[in-house]
């Protein structure tokens, strides 16, 4: 039996892919002048192969890719770690590497950023690039390129990363407004729209939860006190509820440990990119409430059904949504700076 195509998701994905083909085709024909004018919130400010086009560090992307390949061989968890780090950067003040700055009141100190990793990965790559092309490649571009290369090794598509970002000057934990993983569909959609993203971007980017882990404290409300009812979520699959309750006991004591659980129990331990996340959404077996909410809206339910049935459709949409996310409120030209050390301003 052939795969089903739902009109909404098929048309949205095909429209996004058409735009990508037009843009990338133009860039290949006119690499010195063409810029990405249609793909994302601030994509028109970025350039395809920026460092090669402007002859400032021709092999910058190759240097990043090589380092990621070396690091990934030793630790496959870098893929979900970099994904989360990029999300935590772009969705706050924009893709300006502000999350990488150190300081007692910096973004990385915000409660919502507890457990962020991959900082040392960016540091290692930056060290290599500073040796090859001093003061040229921004930390913001390194973060975007390294994430693309790491998730590709984990099974995602190698999507286009337009470059030319510069690094921000400030990092303030008070600006971190990353949403709770228990928010409603409407609140989640409003948050994505505030960043210039649409319903397909939201459903696609939440699919990043096919990898990575979360703390039990983010899901105990679903297990024991859903919407302050004193009861578990009524829609959660009963066998899965029992399984998660064993891993995440009620939080009744001060100082109680807060275990980590896989966001996607099917493939979590392999740290691989897969569409089984959407199968779990459709089966009421999502770990986070924000993920399960995809089932309770007609549009995102259709998207989940399509991605569950067709992995390639998910991969294609992921490629475009990641490019769009990577263009949120970017700094270019004379804005910001090119940090020599990603952890501190020049």
UniProtKB/TrEMBL annotation:
Residues 45-346 form the Plant heme peroxidase family profile domain. The keyword Secreted applies. Keywords: Calcium, Disulfide bond, Heme, Hydrogen peroxide, Iron, Metal-binding, Oxidoreductase, Peroxidase, Secreted, Signal. CDD domains: secretory_peroxidase (cd00693). It is found in: Secreted. GO terms for biological process: hydrogen peroxide catabolic process; response to oxidative stress. Heme b binds at residue 209. It catalyses: 2 a phenolic donor + H2O2 = 2 a phenolic radical donor + 2 H2O. One of its GO terms (cellular component) is extracellular region. Substrate binds at residue 179. The keyword Calcium applies. One of its GO terms (molecular function) is lactoperoxidase activity. It holds the Pfam family peroxidase. Disulfide bonds join 57-133, 90-95, 139-342, 216-248. Ca(2+) 1 binds at residues 89, 92, 94, 96, 98, 107. Its cofactor is Ca(2+); heme b. Its EC number is 1.11.1.7. Belongs to the peroxidase family. Classical plant (class III) peroxidase subfamily. Removal of H(2)O(2), oxidation of toxic reductants, biosynthesis and degradation of lignin, suberization, auxin catabolism, response to environmental stresses such as wounding, pathogen attack and oxidative stress. This is Peroxidase. The lineage of its organism: Eukaryota, Viridiplantae, Streptophyta, Embryophyta, Tracheophyta.
């Amino acid at each position: 039996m052939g795969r089903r195509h739902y009109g909404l998701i098929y048309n949205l994905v095909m429209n996004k892919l058409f735009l990508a083909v037009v843009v990338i085709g133009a860039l290949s024909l006119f690499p010195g002048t063409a810029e990405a004018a249609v793909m994302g919130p601030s994509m028109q400010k970025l350039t395809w192969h920026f460092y090669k086009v402007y002859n400032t560090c021709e092999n910058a992307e190759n240097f990043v890719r090589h380092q990621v390949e070396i690091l990934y061989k030793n630790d496959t968890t870098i893929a979900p770690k970099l994904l989360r780090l990029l999300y935590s950067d772009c969705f706050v003040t924009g893709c300006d590497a502000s999350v990488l700055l150190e300081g007692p009141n910096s973004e990385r100190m915000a409660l919502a950023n507890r457990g962020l990793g991959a900082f040392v990965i960016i540091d290692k790559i930056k060290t290599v690039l500073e040796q090859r092309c001093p003061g040229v490649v921004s930390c913001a571009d390194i973060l975007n390129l390294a994430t693309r290369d790491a998730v590709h090794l984990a099974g995602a598509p190698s999507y286009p990363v337009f470059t030319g970002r510069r690094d921000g000057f400030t990092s303030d934990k008070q600006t971190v407004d990353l949403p709770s993983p228990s928010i409603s569909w409407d609140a989640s959609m409003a948050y994505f729209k505030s960043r210039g993203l649409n319903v397909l971007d939201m459903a696609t980017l939440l699919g990043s939860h096919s990898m990575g882990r979360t703390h039990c404290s983010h899901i105990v409300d679903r297990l024991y006190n859903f919407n302050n009812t004193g009861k578990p979520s009524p829609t959660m699959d009963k066998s899965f509820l029992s399984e998660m309750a064993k891993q995440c006991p009620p939080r009744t004591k001060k100082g109680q440990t807060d275990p980590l659980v896989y966001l996607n129990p099917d493939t979590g331990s392999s740290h691989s990119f897969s569409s089984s996340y959407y199968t779990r959404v459709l089966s009421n077996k999502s770990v986070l409430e924000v993920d399960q909410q995809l089932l309770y809206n007609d549009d995102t339910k259709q998207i989940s059904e399509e991605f569950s049935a067709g992995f390639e459709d998910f991969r294609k949409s992921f490629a475009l949504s990641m490019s769009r996310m990577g263009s949120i409120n970017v700094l270019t030209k004379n804005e910001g700076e090119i940090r020599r050390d990603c952890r501190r301003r020049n």
